[in-house]
């Protein structure tokens, strides 16, 4: 089985600014896929993250740079919000002037001023939003890249790796919440800490009563929002976990659809899926309930604050409440100015509350990304030799501890493995899966396979055939013993380079979304890629399939391939790799009818010309066609020995 591929990140424009917390929560709680069909760009062919010739470069997230960009964007947005103060002053003065008998023509200058300031405000606001989005995007991309790199740095044999469905849901979909959090919550927080203070500074010198009302009403909003926010975060996290679990379950069952049908387990699977969906619905409703509750609290307090200011100003102007203006009496213009500013005082607090759910969802998504990006250390982890997690950049090549218990004698050798068929040796191997009671291979297992030899690994189920192939492919490191490929020791430093000279044919090759040719080349660099992929397809007897599909998308969401065709695709992939001097095949004829299995056997033999071939199989016919057979003992024999 090749390492699972992880979907790359896809850009999505910022969500439109929601006015209420409920709207924000609906955005956060409802999966994007439910709200709108995936954009065609999101269906690009995927390339395995550990594709041998594809080098992943990891850059650290531009945290410092991102922070400066976010602060600048927030300041621009705060400045835009503050423009309302001079606009309100112009409007109040103009109406005050009218009340005192000024001619209508006196309105023209203030109206022009309000218009000009309005345009400036809109421009600044747009600039601030744009800057915030541009500042947040690279941070999200870096986090996604880190998560993909950390996943790729774990062996496909590692059972503790996140399931593909869960990883795809977190990296592809849930991670978008980080963008909303960074681009919207942080500017909103900055606005909420600057704008009300400035407005208070404008209002208080005119009327201490109005200032006091605002001062008392304002902190109640963040206080209640914080109280509700704690629950919102917990609810968002629970919802994300449930969504990831459902995706993982769905993907797993889709992969095994044929088996489910064969075993008549369709109804059971559907029932379980229905139960999962019901749990997701309940968790989503919990998030929405909290959102609507916080929305009600917020509107109540801001409406009360504005109403109290309006009542006071009204009665003050009528002379019923003659106090509160520092010993004097407010003019109509001053009263209007305060009235116009009162809603603007609460506006940033409302906005902050509206994006509070972005914060809850963003933090929950960030935690999920962190979990994926964790390098997978500890007793249960199986690191992928030769792969580098982002944190380990530059460290792996010089760290002997990572290459197993034996010192990396030839790891300093940078000579490329020889061309042509590769000799394979294994000496004194010991390998036990983390947490397993018994070794997966006979202890001290040794083997010598000559260059160009064709060998079958035979043995009962669970005897360790696939494990041995995985160790030879450098997908996991043995706890003891030495493997050499083409005379070079397979270790942490050489694994990635040696894997480039290997081809792997699994039982159920993964078909990526994309055309047949792209599925053969898998993003690998080669001269005349298309022509070479076409040749490989013709060689694997897939020319007819390619012609009938006419460049259509195959794989996830596209037209599928039969089991035999998928196997032939794997053969074409191996044939495409002209550099491969070692072909490792894991039960290539399993699940195939006799005729197709025979055809696959012939193709394998042809592929093996000029290459070394090691096949794990239960198929006696395939084993008979090999030069030699190696028997691996049964697991019970191993248990007795251990
Ligand atoms: N990723 C894994 N994590 C933990 N244990 C594993 C893992 N893969 C295999 N094993 C265990 O290791 C032992 C050897 O399994 P392996 O798949 O290598 O046998 P096999 O000979 O290929 O079997 P089969 O013919 O059924 O494919 C088994 O006991 C199996 O349960």
From TrEMBL:
<feature type="transmembrane region" description="Helical">
    <location>
        <begin position="290"/>
        <end position="314"/>
    </location>
</feature>
<dbReference type="GO" id="GO:0034040">
    <property type="term" value="F:ATPase-coupled lipid transmembrane transporter activity"/>
</dbReference>
<dbReference type="Pfam" id="PF00664">
    <property type="entry name" value="ABC_membrane"/>
</dbReference>
<keyword id="KW-1133">Transmembrane helix</keyword>
<feature type="region of interest" description="Disordered">
    <location>
        <begin position="36"/>
        <end position="66"/>
    </location>
</feature>
<feature type="compositionally biased region" description="Low complexity">
    <location>
        <begin position="405"/>
        <end position="414"/>
    </location>
</feature>
<feature type="transmembrane region" description="Helical">
    <location>
        <begin position="212"/>
        <end position="230"/>
    </location>
</feature>
<dbReference type="InterPro" id="IPR027417">
    <property type="entry name" value="P-loop_NTPase"/>
</dbReference>
<feature type="transmembrane region" description="Helical">
    <location>
        <begin position="104"/>
        <end position="124"/>
    </location>
</feature>
<dbReference type="GO" id="GO:0005524">
    <property type="term" value="F:ATP binding"/>
</dbReference>
<feature type="domain" description="ABC transporter">
    <location>
        <begin position="424"/>
        <end position="642"/>
    </location>
</feature>
<feature type="domain" description="ABC transmembrane type-1">
    <location>
        <begin position="73"/>
        <end position="361"/>
    </location>
</feature>
<feature type="transmembrane region" description="Helical">
    <location>
        <begin position="74"/>
        <end position="98"/>
    </location>
</feature>
<dbReference type="InterPro" id="IPR036640">
    <property type="entry name" value="ABC1_TM_sf"/>
</dbReference>
<dbReference type="GO" id="GO:0016887">
    <property type="term" value="F:ATP hydrolysis activity"/>
</dbReference>
<keyword id="KW-0472">Membrane</keyword>
<dbReference type="InterPro" id="IPR011527">
    <property type="entry name" value="ABC1_TM_dom"/>
</dbReference>
<dbReference type="InterPro" id="IPR003439">
    <property type="entry name" value="ABC_transporter-like_ATP-bd"/>
</dbReference>
<dbReference type="GO" id="GO:0140359">
    <property type="term" value="F:ABC-type transporter activity"/>
</dbReference>
<dbReference type="GO" id="GO:0042883">
    <property type="term" value="P:cysteine transport"/>
</dbReference>
<keyword id="KW-0812">Transmembrane</keyword>
<dbReference type="InterPro" id="IPR003593">
    <property type="entry name" value="AAA+_ATPase"/>
</dbReference>
<feature type="region of interest" description="Disordered">
    <location>
        <begin position="380"/>
        <end position="418"/>
    </location>
</feature>
<dbReference type="InterPro" id="IPR039421">
    <property type="entry name" value="Type_1_exporter"/>
</dbReference>
<dbReference type="InterPro" id="IPR014216">
    <property type="entry name" value="ABC_transptr_CydD"/>
</dbReference>
<dbReference type="Pfam" id="PF00005">
    <property type="entry name" value="ABC_tran"/>
</dbReference>
<keyword id="KW-0067">ATP-binding</keyword>
<keyword id="KW-0547">Nucleotide-binding</keyword>
<dbReference type="GO" id="GO:0005886">
    <property type="term" value="C:plasma membrane"/>
</dbReference>
<feature type="transmembrane region" description="Helical">
    <location>
        <begin position="188"/>
        <end position="206"/>
    </location>
</feature>
<protein>
    <submittedName>
        <fullName>ATP-binding cassette subfamily C protein CydD</fullName>
    </submittedName>
</protein>
């Amino acid at each position: 089985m090749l390492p699972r591929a992880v979907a790359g990140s896809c850009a999505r424009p910022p969500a439109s600014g929601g006015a209420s917390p409920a709207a924000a929560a609906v955005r956060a709680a409802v999966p994007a896929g439910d709200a709108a069909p995936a954009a065609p760009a999101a269906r690009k062919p995927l390339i395995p993250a550990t594709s041998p010739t594809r080098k992943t470069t990891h850059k650290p997230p531009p945290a410092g740079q991102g922070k400066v960009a976010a602060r600048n964007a927030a300041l621009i947005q705060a400045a835009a919000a503050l423009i309302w103060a001079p606009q309100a002053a112009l409007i109040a003065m103009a109406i005050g002037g009218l009340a005192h008998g000024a001619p209508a023509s006196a309105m023209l200058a203030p109206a022009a001023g309000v218009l000009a300031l309005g345009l400036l405000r809109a421009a600044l606001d747009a600039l601030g939003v744009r800057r915030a989005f541009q500042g947040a995007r690279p941070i999200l991309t870096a986090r996604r890249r880190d998560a993909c790199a950390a996943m790729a740095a774990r062996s496909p044999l590692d059972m503790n790796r996140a399931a593909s469905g869960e990883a795809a849901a977190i990296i592809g979909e849930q991670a978008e919440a980080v963008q909303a959090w960074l681009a919207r919550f942080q500017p909103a927080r900055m606005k909420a800490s600057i704008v009300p203070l400035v407005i208070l500074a404008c209002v208080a010198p005119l009327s201490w009563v109005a200032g006091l009302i605002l001062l008392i009403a304002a902190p109640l909003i963040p206080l209640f929002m914080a109280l509700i926010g704690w629950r919102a975060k917990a609810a968002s996290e629970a919802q994300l976990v449930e969504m990831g679990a459902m995706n993982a379950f769905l993907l797993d069952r889709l992969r095994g659809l044929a088996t489910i049908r064969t075993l008549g387990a369709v109804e059971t699977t559907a029932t379980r899926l229905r139960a999962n969906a019901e749990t997701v619905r309940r968790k989503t409703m919990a998030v929405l309930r909290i959102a609507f509750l916080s929305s009600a609290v917020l509107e109540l307090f801001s409406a009360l604050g504005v109403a109290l200011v309006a009542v006071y100003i009204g009665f003050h102007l009528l002379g019923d409440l003659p106090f509160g203006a520092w010993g004097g009496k407010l003019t109509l213009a001053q009263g209007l100015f305060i009235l116009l500013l009162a809603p603007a005082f609460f506006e940033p607090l409302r906005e902050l509350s509206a994006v509070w759910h972005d914060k809850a969802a963003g933090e929950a998504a960030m935690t999920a990304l962190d979990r994926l990006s964790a390098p997978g250390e500890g007793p249960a982890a199986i690191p992928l030799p030769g792969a580098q997690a982002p944190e380990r950049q530059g460290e792996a090549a010089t760290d002997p501890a990572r290459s197993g218990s034996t010192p990396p004698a030839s790891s300093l050798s940078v000579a490329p493995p020889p061309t042509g068929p590769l000799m394979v040796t294994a000496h004194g191997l010991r390998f036990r899966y983390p947490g397993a009671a018994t070794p997966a291979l006979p202890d001290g297992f040794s083997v010598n396979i000559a260059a160009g030899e064709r060998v079958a690994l035979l043995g009962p189920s669970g005897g360790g055939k696939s494990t041995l192939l995985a160790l030879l492919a450098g997908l996991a490191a043995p706890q003891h013993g030495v493997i050499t490929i083409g005379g070079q020791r397979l270790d942490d430093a050489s694994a990635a380079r040696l894997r480039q000279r290997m081809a792997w044919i699994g039982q159920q090759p993964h078909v990526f979304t994309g055309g047949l040719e792209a599925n053969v080349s898998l993003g690998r660099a080669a001269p005349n890629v298309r022509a070479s992929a076409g040749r490989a397809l013709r060689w694997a007897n897939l020319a007819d399939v390619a012609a009938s599909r006419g460049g259509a998308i195959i794989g996830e969401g596209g037209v599928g391939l039969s089991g035999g065709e998928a196997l032939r695709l794997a053969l074409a992939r191996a044939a495409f790799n002209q550099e491969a001097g070692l072909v490792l095949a894991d039960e290539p004829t399993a699940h195939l009818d006799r005729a197709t299995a025979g055809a696959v056997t012939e193709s394998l033999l042809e592929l093996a010309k000029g290459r070394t071939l090691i096949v794990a199989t239960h198929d006696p016919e395939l084993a008979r066609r090999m030069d030699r057979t190696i028997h691996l003992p049964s697991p019970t024999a191993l248990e007795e020995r251990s």
